Amino acid sequence: MLSPFPRNDFSITQASIEGAQxxxxxLAGSTLKIIDNVxxxxxxxxxxxxxxxxNIIVLTSGSLATAADTVAPQYPxxxxxxxxxxxxxxxxxxxxxxxxxxxxxxxxxxVAANHSTTKKLGEVTGLQLTGELQEIAGLTQGAKLIAPSAxxxxxxxxxxxxxxxxEQATKAQMANGVDGILGDLGLGFxxxxxxxxxxxxxxxxxxxxxxxxxxxxxxxxxxxxxxxxVLTRSSVEAAAAGKLTAGAIFVxxxxxxxxxxxxxxxxxxxxDRKVAETTxxxxxxxxxxxxxxxxxxxxxxxxxxx
Length: 306
Known about the structure:
- It is a single chain.
- This protein folds into two domains: about 10-100 and about 230-250, Response regulator (Rossmann fold, 3-Layer(aba) Sandwich); about 100-225 and about 255-295, Rossmann fold (3-Layer(aba) Sandwich), CATH 3.40.50.2300.
- The protein has nine helices and eleven strands.
- It has helices at about 10-25, 45-50, 65-70, 100-115, 130-145, 165-175, 190-195, 230-240, 270-285; strands spanning about 55-60, 80-85, 95-100, 120-125, 150-155, 180-185, 200-205, 220-225, 245-250, 260-265, 305.
- Strands 5-4-6-7-8-10 form a six-stranded mixed β-sheet, with helices on both faces. A five-stranded parallel β-sheet has the order 1-2-3-9-11, with helices on one face.
- Helix 5 links the parallel strand 4 and strand 5 (about 150-155).
- Helix 6 (about 165-175) packs parallel to helix 7 (about 190-195).
- The model has no long low-confidence stretch (mean pLDDT about 95).
């Protein structure tokens, strides 16, 4: 497993490690090597080194897509699983897997706008990557379904795991009247939640770990859980069995085991819950169509929707 983030990031990397460990229990004789905190300059060499000693490699960030494009053709016997991005072209030994973050954020946006008094919403996240931009687009679309005049402010801290920057960014948005904020962070969630203590601001999250973490803050109404532990276990097991399809897999709200909006127990109003229900139903039926900028761009090869 290769990651630009620390292995204990309370996010995709840690969840993917746990999913791979789950898969190992069914794959006799298999072992897991974790290479984390890989810098941009090290990506290609680190992936090449991993490929020399592996049969399956999980890449836990879309920022590793270029490295996959470079290295995968050199190691046709290795299967590469890339998260949160697609490779620039088809490889017979690469599966790119992307939860439709923007689609799920439409539900978050609708709930947040319904719950908000000011109709000023925000998002605090780390890097300005494709998935984050889709998430902001979905949050905005969902908010405007409820309140056409709603606005969404976005702040990129530059680091999902910087607690201080997350806290500062959250406080800055609140100072501008934002009263509903979506967090998409790793260890930075600590600062995000700390910033809203003792305020009337409601927060939501996009959580790639194994739960929403509702105990983290009483201000957390709910959010989207993209369960990368489940996703990694199933993907690794399928790859080991020779049943994982090369190309791209986009995971949608039709697969709630992996991607869904949920409320924290006892939080959110009855009206909020109704909005979540009707918005999700509208997306599943096709009555609500995500805007193009809220969806993962289709690559120049086949996509399987799950």
